[in-house]
Design brief:
Blueprint: H1 3-36, H2 39-68, H3 85-92, H4 95-125, H5 133-146, H6 150-159, H7 165-172, H8 188-198, H9 201-213, H10 216-224, H11 229-257, H12 261-266, H13 278-288, H14 292-320
Helix pairs in contact: 4-8, 4-9, 4-11, 4-13, 5-9, 9-11, 11-14, 13-14
Protein name: ABC transporter, permease protein
Keywords: Cell membrane, Membrane, Transmembrane, Transmembrane helix, Transport
Main location: membrane
């Protein structure tokens, strides 16, 4: 047999092998392409940056904080497991824990209803369309953007100082005063409440959007039946707004419980801890006293309290929130 004749079968086998390999590769690439073209896979690929960020900056820190809450971690030293000691100390030995919890609940339970009432009132005023309505909406929303900043907190502190703007304005009306609004245990908390109520813009816009969804035919029918504006508000507007009120209430109560910047910059919990918010106390324990493990335990207690309060609101929802499907 000649060399050329012997090489022919080998070349044929090599060609067949190459074709099979190419076919397998093509099928693999086709399957991979079909897999990646699936909507669910494409969605996960697009969402992967968020998923990665959520895991790295939310879930992992939460797991670590839960672990540290059972340790004596002090930031500058190694953590040692101490079990429930932080929680026992919190409920039995830390008087400032209960004080800060009471101040925070007082702040939230007063500021949030006032904010929602004011937001609804302004939303109803802006309901009528006019050439300047867009300007007014932006102007009223602006405090919600700026109110949580350090700059506004510093400005607020200067305004309510004994020689600040508030006392100067009172002087224009003949009321000479050097009253220390931030140095009095009865008025200091109210300066923070006023600042919180001033940031009503986001709730106002949500109320405004909901008011525009109420059918005008309902008001027309009520007017034909002789219902006054006040009656229409109580019988039509308010019941149909209860889902929006519920949403704003939940969101604003959570924000109220987690308030930090205003108190820390303006009063730092003074005078006599009358404005010591829970988050400020937690910050002091974690980064001033270097009790980071104790601060982590405080964070988890607040998470449980906020979750319990939110569940309570949802449990009472069926008694006062209007449900179209009911």
């Amino acid at each position: 047999m000649s060399h050329a004749t012997a090489a022919a079968p080998v070349s044929a086998r090599n060609a067949n092998t190459a074709r099979k390999t190419a076919g397998v590769t093509f099928r693999k690439e086709g399957a991979l392409r079909r897999f990646l073209n699936k909507e669910s896979v494409a969605g996960y690929v697009c969402a992967s940056p968020f998923i990665f960020g959520f895991l790295m900056f939310m879930i992992v820190p939460m797991v670590l904080s839960l672990y540290y809450s059972f340790t004596d971690y002090s930031i500058i030293g190694e953590a040692s497991w101490i079990g429930l000691d932080n929680y026992v100390e919190m409920f039995t030995q830390d008087d400032l824990f209960w004080k800060s919890l009471g101040v925070t609940f007082l702040f939230a339970l007063i500021s949030v209803p006032l904010k929602l009432i004011f937001a609804l009132f302004v939303a109803m005023l802006l309901l009528k369309n006019s050439k300047a309505s867009g300007f007014y909406r932006a102007a009223y929303y602006l405090p919600s953007i700026l109110g949580g900043s350090v700059a506004i907190a510093v400005l607020w502190k200067q305004m309510f100082a004994s020689d600040g703007t508030i006392n100067q304005v009172l002087g224009l009306f003949g009321v000479k005063s050097d009253f220390a609004w931030l140095g009095n245990t009865k008025t200091a908390i109210w300066t923070l409440i006023i600042l919180a109520v001033w940031q009503f813009g986001s709730s106002m816009l949500i109320f405004l959007a909901s008011l525009k969804q109420i059918p005008a035919e309902l008001y027309e029918a009520a007017s034909v039946d002789g219902a006054s504006k006040w009656t229409q508000f109580w019988k039509i507007t308010l019941p149909l707004l209860t889902p929006t009120i519920f949403f704003n209430l939940v969101m604003q109560m959570i924000n109220g419980f987690l308030a930090f910047t205003q108190c820390y910059i303006i009063t730092q919990g003074k005078p006599m801890n009358s404005t010591l918010f829970y988050m400020v106390h937690m910050y002091d324990e974690s980064f001033t006293n270097y009790h980071a493990g104790y601060g982590a335990a405080m964070a988890w207690v607040m998470l449980i309290l906020v979750g319990a309060f939110t569940l309570f609101l949802f449990a009472t929802k069926r008694f006062w929130v209007y449900d179209e499907e009911a």
